[in-house]
Amino acid sequence: MDLEIDNLACRRAGRMVFRDLDFRLGAGEAAALRGPNGVGKSTLLRVLAGLIPAAGGDARLGDISLARDRGAFQERVAYAGHLDAVKPALGVAENLAVWAGLHATDAGRVAAALERFGIGHIAGHPAAQCSAGQKRRLGLARLLVIDRPLWLLDEPTVSLDAASSALVAELVREHCAKGGMALIATHIELGLGAGPVLEMHPPQVAGQAAEHGDAADPFLEGAW
Ligand SMILES: Nc1ncnc2c1ncn2[C@@H]1O[C@H](COP(=O)(O)OP(=O)(O)OP(=O)(O)O)[C@@H](O)[C@H]1O
């Protein structure tokens, strides 16, 4: 199964964040998603996760179109966002058990995922008492609880120590070896070796946004 991004566009708060975006990712490939702060990396991942609507274009996973069948597209995607989405009121293992239940997957995967991320020994602890790195590992452990061909990872190594960052790279490699795909927004080198890169660029021409009827970014305007 391939990922094909075709002429994709997204508008937020009335402003075009990106447009005319084309990219292709083949089965077994992991791509780095790069670009300066605010260029739209997280936005793209959230569009592909079906969390915010596209303003145009489409993305396809095999024969499933995001524009035509968002639900089916989402069922092929696992998204790990900036925030860990860990429920602090639940225990560490409970967090993953709820996730497994939501996706009707084998609860037996929970213990294996916790062990793999080195947090099996705190399975019974309240998630609220986890360190930032432990919370991040718990959030990422959800990737192993459900089977999705496309992983969308937004700065997955934030708060992680060197060993855990290396583990993320190892898991991505394993996922790809099984035919999976990953699109990873990262400002650091993950150690995945040479692979496809999706580089996002801010508009080159100062008047470009206005030409397309988009409001200018007030923060950038002030900075310039
Ligand atoms: N909730 C929101 N509502 C409206 N606009 C938003 C929202 N979140 C982000 N934006 C805008 O969308 C644009 C892209 O933001 P995004 O977070 O996708 O960038 P990014 O490339 O991931 O940045 P970073 O490298 O800093 O994480 C920015 O101009 C930002 O101001």
UniProtKB/TrEMBL annotation:
Record bears the keyword Transmembrane: no
Stated name of the protein: Heme ABC exporter ATP-binding protein CcmA
Residues in the signal sequence: none
UniProt-recorded Gene Ontology molecular function terms: ATP binding; ATP hydrolysis activity; transmembrane transporter activity
Pfam families: ABC_tran (PF00005)
Gene: ccmA
Residues passing through the membrane, by range: none
PROSITE patterns assigned: ABC_TRANSPORTER_1 (PS00211), ABC_TRANSPORTER_2 (PS50893)
GO biological process, one term: cytochrome complex assembly
Domain of life: Bacteria
InterPro entries: AAA+_ATPase, ABC_transporter-like_ATP-bd, ABC_transporter-like_CS, ABC_transptr_haem_export_CcmA, P-loop_NTPase
Organism in which the protein naturally occurs: Thermohalobaculum xanthum
Domain ABC transporter positions: 3-219
Keywords (A to Z) from UniProt: ATP-binding, Cytochrome c-type biogenesis, Membrane, Nucleotide-binding, Translocase, Transport
